[in-house]
Design goal:
Helix content of chain B: 25-40%
CATH topology of the largest domain in chain B: Rossmann fold
Strand order of the largest sheet of chain A: 3-2-1-5-4
Helix content of chain A: 10-25%
Structural class of chain B: alpha/beta
Shape of chain B: elongated
Structural class of chain A: alpha+beta
Number of domains of chain A: 1
Oligomer: heterodimer
Shape of chain A: globular
Radius of gyration of chain B: 21 Å
Distance between the termini of chain A: 26 Å
Number of helices of chain B: 8
Strand content of chain B: 15-25%
Strand order of the largest sheet of chain B: 8-7-6-9-10-11
Radius of gyration of chain A: 14 Å
Chain lengths: ~110, ~240
């Protein structure tokens, strides 16, 4: 997929946050199986206050990713997360579509 | 991600250079491949480098099989060249920009191609064949021909159909399009080349207004971009 430049440029926004002295973590979809709403390469930037720009799913796992991003911002150690659920669990947590995604979360230094 | 890598990545993207950011998903170490240059704290061996180059060529970000490496490809934006600064173009241009296209409007008619009608868009008033030769449509470019005027549309199509553009569309009814094909055939284009033109342009979604026609065009270009099967064929349209 092609990344677009512009007001929705996640990396540009993340860089601006860094310039403001904010702590920032970046989440990137690195693999998908089955149906998933956002393709490989999709990114979400999060700051320590939980502000977000971009997305790694249709909104179903962002909450969990933001939570993990908090500890990545603390420790500086990157994490590789995997989300995938069966359909009967779909309304509890994870992806309602039944797909699986791997998300890499790193701190911007 | 280190600040230096982020800045190098953003600089390359601003310059519209294709680059790949390679991340070791276990260690977080990264390398940025920019042309022949590799920077960062991750060392890439020759065979891996070749696979990353292929990922860039294929425009496909992916985890490299049997490694812990993720190659994130950042290619320059898709391009859309719109020939004819007409009413439909006024809707199509901002929609295409939202969809991630870098849009250029070509129209030698000064009254049409004004900044007031097309704010924040690259415009050229060259004759369409010269403009298209200069812009050089490649496999990441869509060309949309909207003037309805053979003396502008035909030169644009003559150049475009010799290019690798992934989508070529031309406005006009079935009747207009048949006449256009006959003219271009006279000018020496092959049947294979002519078959590349989506005409009448756009998916058959019953589009009436300029904005709706723009949606049908953008949808058809999207379909071509992703190689989706044509579910609906355009009927006699505008």
């Amino acid at each position: 997929m092609t990344e677009t430049m512009g007001s929705d440029d996640v990396l540009a926004e993340a860089a601006r946050w860094l310039d403001d002295g904010r702590r920032v973590a970046l989440a990137t979809v690195v693999a998908t199986w089955g149906s998933s709403p956002r393709p490989v390469g999709s990114q979400l930037a999060v700051d320590a206050q939980g502000n977000m720009v971009g997305s790694v799913s249709g909104g179903c796992i962002e909450g969990a990713v933001v939570h993990e991003a908090g500890s990545v911002m603390e420790s500086g150690a990157p994490k590789l997360l995997e989300y995938g659920v069966t359909d009967e669990m779909a309304w509890e947590v994870g992806l309602a579509c039944g797909g699986t995604v791997k998300v890499f979360v790193e701190r911007l230094d | 991600m280190k600040r230096a890598i982020l800045e190098a990545l953003q600089a390359a993207r601003a310059d519209k250079r294709p680059v790949a950011l390679v991340t070791n998903l276990e260690t977080g170490r990264q390398a940025l491949l920019d042309g022949d240059q590799v920077t960062g704290d991750l060392t890439l061996g020759g065979p891996v480098l070749e696979r990353v180059r292929k990922a860039v060529h294929d425009d496909r970000s992916a985890t490299l099989p049997e490694t812990s490496l993720f190659a994130h490809v950042f290619n320059p934006p898709l391009r859309m060249i719109v020939v004819g600064a007409v009413h439909i173009a006024q809707s199509l241009v901002p929609m295409a920009a939202l969809a991630g296209y870098d849009v250029t409007v070509v129209d030698p008619r000064r009254a049409w191609a004004t900044d007031a009608r097309f704010p924040d868009v690259t415009m050229t008033s060259e004759w369409p064949d010269d403009a298209l030769r200069g812009l050089g449509p490649d496999r990441r470019t869509a060309v949309i021909v909207l003037t309805h005027d053979p003396k502008l549309d035909d030169p644009a199509l003559l150049v475009t159909l010799k290019s690798a553009a992934f989508y070529v569309g031309a406005l006009g009814s079935t009747k207009t399009h048949a006449k256009r094909l006959a003219r271009l055939r006279e000018l020496g284009l092959s049947e294979d080349e002519l078959a590349r033109i989506h005409g009448p342009i756009g998916l058959a979604i019953g589009a009436k207004s300029p904005a709706e026609i723009a949606i049908s065009i953008l949808a058809q270009a999207t379909q071509a971009l992703h190689g989706a099967p044509p579910l609906v064929k355009a009927e006699a349209g505008s």
